[in-house]
Amino acid sequence: MSLFCAGLFLVYISLNHRDWSIFFKSQEELGVSYFEDNINDKGEGLRKHLVNVQGAWLPTPYGLTLLPGSSGQLTLEFRKNPEQGVLVNLWFYKTQGITNAVIFASPSGASTYYKDIDVRGNLFFDISELTHGEDRFRIILGCSVPPDFPAGKTLLDKISISFIDTYHGNFPALSSFLACLFAGLFLIFILKNVFRDDLKVWVASFAISLVFILLLSYKLIGFFPSMIFIAAVFICYAILSFRKDKRLWQDNRIYLGLLFLLLVYGLEWRWTLLQKIWPLRLDPDAQGYLSLARQLSWLYDTGMREPLFIWLVKIFCSFTAWSNLNLRLLTLCLSIGVIVVTYWAGVRFFNKVVGILAAGFISVALPFVKMSPRGLRFEIFIILFVVFFIRALSKNKKEQWAIASVFDGLIAGFVCLVRLNTIGIIPLLWLYQGIRMKWNYKMALIRIGVLSMLIAPHLYNNYQISHPPDPFHSVNIHTRYYCNQEFGGQPGFPTQEEIARNAYTGEPISFLSYVFNLHSLGDVINRTALGLVSIYLGYYTKAVLFSNNLFFYILFILGVVALLFSKKRILLLFLVVMEIPQAFILAYPLNWSGVLEQVPAMDWRLVLQIAPFLLMITFYAPFGWWEIFTQKVPAILSKFRAKQKTRVEGEVPNSGRANQD
Fold it and tell me: pTM for the whole thing?
């Protein structure tokens, strides 16, 4: 089967090699050029393009704002090659009570109008068709704010424009390959299974399933066309198998088939997004990863960045080409791995149904889909961290202790080489694992030795490049960023103007010094608790992960409660412990008044590594509550009745003797 799929893919590549050649072109060969600047008074690049300004726009350290109760409009004009495509990436912050609008206009009089854009970050617009054949275009930004709008709050931040010479008709479509793959798999399925069953029943089941999925895809879900076919095949297979064997849902083949379905669905979802946004300029962090990988001289020469992700970028782009597109493709492929490890973790911690449901959610969840082509290290960190978590909290006595020790040390080292700040949670998890598995000193030393060998060169590189020397520079430089966000402008700290020029400016500071030297113990405890509530009950879970879907949010709460009554409650403890540092950082500038609805100032990506576990807990809820009502409640009632019976039996003889006396 694997050889068939690989052969079909090679045939498809050969027939469409001109489209797929885009992944073997360098950034220069792709013909993409960029314009990017901040939308404020200091943005010299944008000031050259301003043709009209209406309203009292005021500069902030990060963009432009308006006076409370006022309105304004900016008109920008840009020139281009008439044949170039144009994508606009706009940071336009929408908050309660604000009215905003964006108009794209061409000299011919054609225009596109967007009103009340509800976005708290970047949003991209493809205006290639509008500007095709034109040598210039205009962007008109309008906004009005209510009288109670906070003074100094940024409204317009940054604009980035991509000019693409080879934009139209050169990106490979994945749907045609998937349709061919499904057709081939379907043929194999027919030859191996259908003729052994009742053909009439199979055809009827297939027809019913196909009609059902077509209606569902059109009205509710929005399945890609190629997914309709394979979904119908799986449903028919399930119907036929269930007619013969009621234990269908214990069969691993069913879950592996469903996982395959989710992987393909997730891949096509992400591929469609990549097709739209690949010409956009990379995030600054992603640009840094690509630049470091290209100039890498020795394995650990990666500046303040941990090296593992940069190694992957180096290997991938060396075999393809050095381009922003290939960096996006790499993280897209890694995001498919996130679906796989989520299923694996769900099976190891709970059951196959929980695993497949959690993996299915991640395959279509907007935070994961939108992050997948951004070229960041988010996906590789989730994969490694979930694997490490599985190893630490699960129990497997069948492994040889030496091989298991080396593997655990490698995984722990790789986790640290993606984010060094995770080194604090590793000893806690290993201590728990060692107690459960009854390690001897050899097992512990092998793990510690392998971990040390992997991270020691990175610590040495940190020591060499930092002033004063600091082996944990890659962690503490980000601590300086958070410290500046909180205390910037106060005596003894960089000014807001200095921070606007360089967010990492200022004297070096460690995370422990930042927490305990600049905050009282009561503030540390209060703020950490506030951050944990925000992560697990507030914005990060409710708004980001579940997109304010009340059903999934309530199901998650029910899953947490059910887990507290199960033997797996240790999972909750470690989830809380591992997020304590992030909780302290992310709590700024929240307060207890309305914490469940407040939007934290820090980046939500810092906590998405726990999303697979939160989803597992969510879909564990029905199983947990079924166990409570069918096993725990009857057991408690049985014990209560036994005590009552014992008490009654103990009282009867005494009362008899009393009567005799």
Answer: 0.85
